[in-house]
Amino acid sequence: SGSRSSKTFKPKKNIPEGSHQYELLKHAEATLGSGNLRQAVMLPEGEDLNEWIAVNTVDFFNQINMLYGTITEFCTEASCAVMSAGPRYEYHWADGTNIKKPIKCSAPKYIDYLMTWVQDQLDDETLFPSKIGVPFPKNFMSVAKTILKRLFRVYAHIYHQHFDSVMRLQEEAHLNTSFKHFIFFVQEFNLIDRRELAPLQELIEKLGSKDR
């Protein structure tokens, strides 16, 4: 739609076809199709953990990017003057390089900063090598954890502030499946601190209990 801010809606990050990561992504999609998300997030036998986390992180970035893209017209400077996830949680932006001291900004601005920052990390070949045999950096896991922690905030904002729009667009099943996949993944590898997940704790418990 013409009203969609092209700025916030990032281009999809593609994993090169024919690469090992592409095969991993295909494996992930195939297991997801089976409907068992707990199984789908497990590290495939003989695979490298960093590579598995890298492929899935790119996939979650694309999913969240797409989900947020559908509600950008409802997420405006006026409607979301602060980046929040309900009345108790407010997020301020800092990336440690360009913006060192956390700044208070509107949700669309925050999410634009966040998605641009994530995209820069994913495009950095020294952090996310796409070529076979190029090793992952020693700090890869901490970078991946920061990315996932920040991507979680976009889900939290959508659920708390825009769920009625999601319902009107009949996208709640899509959002819930994407979020459930995300949560099972970060739980499987312990990638996000429990405190960070607090804004959606009830939902997380509900999604998890259906799978026991």
Please characterize this protein's 3D structure.
By secondary structure, the protein is mostly helical. The protein has a single domain, classed as MOB kinase activator (Butyryl-CoA Dehydrogenase, subunit A, domain 3, Up-down Bundle), CATH 1.20.140.30. The chain is 53% helix and 2% strand. It is built from seven helices and two strands, in the order αααββαααα. It has helices spanning 20-33, 37-40, 49-71, 107-123, 140-168, 172-188, 201-209, and strands at residues 83-84, 90-91. The protein has a two-stranded antiparallel sheet. Strand 1 and strand 2 (90-91) form a beta hairpin. The protein is globular, with a radius of gyration of 17 Å. The N and C termini lie far apart (40 Å). Keywords: Kinase, Metal-binding, Transferase, Zinc. This is MOB1A kinase. It holds the Pfam family Mob1_phocein. GO terms for molecular function: kinase activity. Zn(2+) binds at residues 75, 80, 157, 162.
The gyration radius over C-alpha positions equals: 17 Å
Count of separate DSSP helical elements: 7
Distance from N terminus to C terminus (CA atoms, Å) equals: 40 Å
Could you describe the largest sheet, including whether it forms a barrel? 2 strands, antiparallel
Tally of distinct domains: 1
Strands, count = 2
Summarize the structure in short.
It contains seven helices and two strands. With 212 residues, it is mainly α.
Provide keyphrases for this structure.
two-stranded antiparallel sheet, about 210 residues, 7 helices, Butyryl-CoA Dehydrogenase, subunit A, domain 3, disordered N terminus, mainly alpha, about 0% strand, about 55% helix
